[in-house]
Design goal:
Oligomer: single chain
CATH architecture of the largest domain: 7 Propeller
Distance between the termini: 108 Å
Shape: elongated
Mean pLDDT: 83
CATH class of the largest domain: Mainly Beta
Largest sheet: 4 strands, antiparallel
Keywords: Repeat, WD repeat
Number of helices: 0
Number of strands: 18
Number of domains: 2
Pfam family, one: WD40
Order of helices and strands: EEEEEEEEEEEEEEEEEE
Amino acid sequence: MDSKSVPTRCSLPAGSSPPRRFNCDESQFKVPRGVKAFDFCKESNILVTGGLDRNIRLWNPYVPGWAIGLLRGHTSPIGFLCIADGNTKLFSVSMDSTVMVWDIEDQSCLLSVIPKASQIRGEMAVCYFSNELRALYLAADCLVLLHFQKKEDRISNSCVSHNEAILCCQYNKPFRQVVSCSEGSAMKVWDLQNGQLVTEVYGAHGDAAVICMALDTSGKRYIISVGWNRKINIFPVSKECLIF
């Protein structure tokens, strides 16, 4: 038997048309001017679309009647979309090769990459995002790799330097130290390299606030301060550091 005469499972009788799907099997998302790019996240159940109207729309696949979010910022048609970073970030690329990073939950723009600043020339042709490398490959007139570093959660090492508001401060270049004065008439000297307190003076102007301060031209002889009590005080310093 000739193999051409063997009917296949998908073959249809001559002159017949394929069966029509039920309306419940399809959903229509009406987007002005059409869709050029989309991505779908099954875990978060979010569909994102972008197109000629330069807007990004977020959809619930089961509610196609209206978008649940609208992201504006691109100035040319959108040609690439990718949901990444544990389904929390959205990477979008427009046809002018502008790259934008969005926070899906807040629906806000986190980063905008200007083509000229990143040496991207020409219109975007094709893109690929690598979740493993957290990098975006963008092909235009040349192939460009954009690597997005993830900010690590940092423990804040800041501390309260004064109990009252700081009204003035000065940087001493020879000693690489910072002098700060507060509303409580406290004057403190800090090491710029390690942030440690070198020395401090309380009651520099009695109970009056220190409102301004200056160093001598050499930065190695004295500190001049002016208090709210309309008095000027001069504090001599040592030859090796700003110690009163």
